[in-house]
Amino acid sequence: MGNSFACFSSHSQVTKSSKRSPPFPNSRSASTKKKGQKLRDDDLLLQQQAYAAALLFREHQRAGNFPATGLNRSASVVYPTPPAKKQSLPKSSSSRQRSGSDAVVQPHQLVNSQDPKSTSGLETNHFVLVHGGGFGAWCWYKTMTLLVEGGLKVDAVDLTGSGIQSSDTNSVTSLAQYIKPLTDILEKLEDGKKVILVGHDFGGSCISYVMELFPSKIAKAIFIAAPMLASAQSILDLFSQQIGASNLMRQAQVFLYANGKDQPPTAIDLDKELVRDLFFNQSPAKDVALASVSMRPIPFGPVMEKLSLSTANYGSVRRFYIVTAEDNAITVPLQESMIKSNPPEQVFQVKGSDHAPFFSRPQALHKILVEIAQTPPK
Length: 378
Description:
By secondary structure, the protein is of the alpha/beta class. It has 14 helices and 9 strands.
C-alpha cells in the first residue's frame, strides 16, 4: 500500500546487506561445490513446486471452485512434501538471509508431531491471511503451501474489488465495504473458535478494523510491513506525518477518477514498469510476472477513513510485527516509527526481504508465522 500514500512516505533508502566472500575464494573443494549445487537444486525444486501450486490455484479460481466470500484456499495449493532432511534448523533463519551452509527448511521440520509445540497444542491452528493494497489472495500461494504442509488450516481472502472478487474497485467507498469478505469469515466462525490474523501492507488497517469488532475471535494479530494505526487515525494521516517522499513512489502511483476529474480520486493504480523496483526488488522474476497480471487498483475511500479503536477491544488482542528489511515501499525507518508509536508484543525481522516477503523470503516468513503461532497464551 506504500504506493497509495507515496507522497507521504519517508525517502530514506534501505541499504542492502552485502554478501560476504569466503576468505580463500579459489580454495573451495569439490565437496563444497557439490553441496552448493545441491542447495541450488533444492531452491529450484521449491520454486518449481510453488509455481505449479500457483497455476493450480489460478485454474481452480477460473473454474469457480471457491465460494464468492470466505475463500478457503488451502486445499488448492498443497504439493507433495520433498523428502525430509536430517539437518537441524538454523537458529536465526527468521532474521537473516540464508547462507550457503544453511539447510533448506521443509514445512514438516517447522511443525511436526514429535515437537511438544506441535499443531495439536496450539491455541489455534487457523490462519487468516489478508493481502495488501492492490494484491489478492493469490499473493499468499507460497505461504499457504508451507502452512498447510505443516498441518495448519489456512484461509486467504480476496477483499472487495481485489483478486478474483468481481466488484469494481472504483465503487468501494468505505473500509467496511472493502473488508466485508473478511468480516464474513469471522461472523461465521464457530463459538469458541479463534484465528490468527495476518495482515500485509494495507491489510494491517483491515485486521485492525476487525480486531475492534471481533476481539474474542482473534488469538493473535500479525502485521507484515503494515500500518498499526491509533484511534481516529487513517492511513493517510499516518503517512502524511512522514517527511519527504521517494521519486519512485510518486512516479509509480496513478490516480483514477471514475466520477470525473472534478471529483476526488476513486482508486489508485500502479505503473507496471515501476512495480518491480518498488515492491519486488528481491523477488523472483516469475512472482513479479504473476503480480503484474494479477494486481488491481486500490480503492481510495478506505485509505481516507479514520479508524475507531478502543483499548477494551482492539487493545485486548495480542499484536506482533514483522519488519521487511529491504522494503522500498514501506521503508524500515517508517516501519520502526509505527512500532515505536504503537508497540506490539514482539517484533521480528526478515532480512533480505522486499515489500513482499511471501515472494522473496517465503521460508523465513513461514518460520516466523509458526513461531508466533506457537507462542503460548498469556
